[in-house]
Design a protein that fits this description.
By secondary structure, this protein is an alpha/beta fold. The chain has twelve helices and 14 strands.
């Protein structure tokens, strides 16, 4: 059926003026001028061919025809508003925006996202990589709110790497991280070879801003201190990259040695694309968190993704080649004097 309707904007202005019996109050409600209200009412009267208002003193009164049509018009606007809200609700059920650190999105989320798509085929996912999701400490709620996409028609969640302090938001801890040194297998076995941490003095160190944020300072300097070779290796030299994704790609192309977060690079190590030559890991005290506003936490799309993500985060990491050296965990500032021995530190 084809509906012959007058301009909806004119109907909206008429309904407001009729409800208030005042062009001035209608103008204030609709944030337009009183002259604009008069113009819209006049255009509607010309379209319908009838008079809608009669002026009485300083005010206006409805004509009989206008008074008779007003209840049905209000019903129509109520139905229209309900229809628009239904569209918003349906969109919120089927759309999900996920903002995450680039390396998390590429190295951890993407290899698993196809499984979520199969489990929830009706949810349309939009993934955004943003380095702002790596927190330089606790964020206040205003700062986090400015980052989150809170459009009413889309459910937006974020993956943060930080300390877990997100007041006013629902935050679910996914897993902690460890900072490790990685390089290409060809570089480790090359000339000069990379056999022990002191050999880094003859290698190119690849820096990136994200690792410095995670380490709350100079990541390379802290790692070298934990390995006990800060006095033998200049940690300030080498090129700098804006994200860990870029420094890892540079490492895989044999441009140098990079710092990476485990378990995000476990798949690269398992495939042999990268190796962890020393097994020394520094614990920065950060973890990945799923963060979202409480007001959208129970939306179907958000709830489905949260349930799935927590399940995947709780799974044990993939088994890596047994030839990789046993890992030694250290904390920032826990210096290891002298050359590290294979038996020092804790093993997992």
């Amino acid at each position: 059926m084809i509906y012959r309707l007058p301009p909806l904007n004119a109907l909206r202005v008429f309904e407001s003026a009729a409800r208030h019996l005042s062009f001035k109050e209608a103008a204030a409600e609709l944030h337009i001028t009183q002259a604009a209200v008069s113009h819209q009412v006049k255009s509607l009267e010309e379209y319908l061919g009838i008079e809608l208002f009669r002026r009485e003193g300083r005010g206006v009164q409805l004509t009989e025809a206008a008074r008779a049509s007003l209840p049905r018009l209000r019903e129509g606007f109520d139905a229209l508003a309900a229809a628009v809200e239904t569209i918003h609700e349906r969109s919120a059920e089927t759309e999900l925006s996920i903002t995450a650190p680039p390396v998390f999105a590429a190295r951890w989320l993407m290899p698993r996202l196809a499984e979520f798509a199969k489990l929830a085929p009706g949810i349309e996912v939009r993934v955004v990589g943003s380095s702002r999701m790596v927190d330089a400490g606790a964020l206040d709620s205003a700062a986090l709110m400015s980052n989150l996409d809170l459009r009413s028609e889309t459910s937006g969640v974020e993956i943060h790497l930080g300390g877990g302090d997100y007041p006013g938001f629902r935050a679910d801890r996914l897993f902690s991280v460890a900072m490790a040194l990685v390089a290409s297998p060809e570089l480790v076995a090359g000339d000069p070879p990379l056999r022990e941490p002191a050999d880094l003095a003859r290698q190119v160190l690849l820096h990136d801003d994200a690792m410095d944020v995670v380490a709350h300072g100079d990541a390379w300097q802290k790692w070298l201190e934990s390995a006990g070779v800060a006095d033998k290796v200049d940690g300030s030299r080498g090129p700098r990259f804006s994200t860990n994704m870029l420094s890892l790609e540079a490492a895989s192309q044999k441009l140098g040695v990079a710092l990476a977060l485990r378990p995000l690079v476990d798949a690269d190590i398992a495939s042999g694309r990268l190796v962890e030559p020393f097994g020394i890991e520094m614990k920065p005290g950060s973890a990945y968190f799923l963060v979202c506003p409480e007001v959208i936490a129970d939306r179907p799309a958000v709830a489905a993704f949260r349930t799935w993500l927590l399940e995947k985060a709780g799974e044990p990491p993939a088994v890596t080649p047994s030839a990789r050296p046993a890992r030694r965990e250290t904390r920032p500032g826990a210096a290891r004097p002298g050359k590290p021995r294979s038996g020092s530190g804790r093993r997992r």
